[in-house]
Amino acid sequence: MAMAITTDSGSSGWSMLSLKSALPPVTSTASSIKLPCRRRSTKCPQLVRSFSALSPVNPVHSLGFSDLNSFEHNFTIIDNGYRFYAMRHGRRVPKLNRPPDQRRALLRGLTTQLLKYGRIKTTRARASAMRKYVDKMITLAKDGSLHKRRQALGFIYEKQIVHALFAEVPDRYGDRNGGYTRIIRTLPRRGDNAPMAYIELV
Amino acid sequence: MARSVEPLVVGRVIGDVLDMFTPAAELTVHYGAKQVHNGCDIKPSSAADKPHVRILGPLVSSSLYTLVMVDPDAPSPSEPRLREWLHWIVVDIPEGHEATEGREMVPYMGPQPPTGIHRYVLVLFKQERATEGGCQLPDGRANFSTRQFAAQNSLGLPVAAVYFNSQKEPAVKKR
To answer: Between 20 and 30 A from B71 (CA), which of A92, A131, B47, B165?
Structure first.
């Protein structure tokens, strides 16, 4: 797409011939742009493509077409076809103020410690984020097969804990369906007033 | 020292150690200057000595109380094999007085949790009559049962309970 701009060296404006020759041939099944308005695409496909290379803003808006400002057209379209909302509506993954790799490491460490000690004290956000992973590990242990054991070994940091877990979970949680942890809220931490909680295995 | 038993239910003290009861007496426990309320954190170093336990009530009343302190999470909350670990039994505490005025049947042992965060429960029972000295001491501190002890000595349901959390302190300061 950047080629379209560099052919602009000599002329003052853009000529359609140079653009058409520089760009890949127009195919009607191009998935990179889903123009909401089909009839406009036949008039100016080339211009719209070059605009989308510059910025992810909805190209139709930049051309000033006014009848496309309804809800469906207010999300930006990134060129691999995904939709990107500006707000967080409906997203349920807790980010824990960390990038994804650190977040995964934090949750792995916390579940390892909980399975080792039985009861730990952390912040409320971390405790409620951990529940899913602890329940997952106990479910893997309930299954008990080799594949599940290896999956658990890939998540929990200490292998003694995995082997102990697989040994005792069928007795302890055999009858219980889900809900293997309990969170008890407690007083905030003194240093930063963070709300704390105990999380324990039921 | 709350009148309601909800913190005890939330902390699973009622269930693991005790049965559901209605509080009939009031109990205050102090380790030094710090008062124990349900679920608070006490360091083992501050709890090494006996707490000041006072039963609130009219001083001239003739009822006597028994205090039992146990740890239901011994040796570790994830594997409580030695549930419950007995820490202290005091009998014949007159109402309105401190626990030191009773007869200490099992000497006080401070919390020493080896791993994890342990709950320590202090339970108060009302005695029908003064113990004549016939109640049998448990053999060791491990695998004590508060319910069984209450049944053997016909103490009935508890009248007050409080619990606190404690965990092992880090041994040495990092350089």
So the answer is: A131
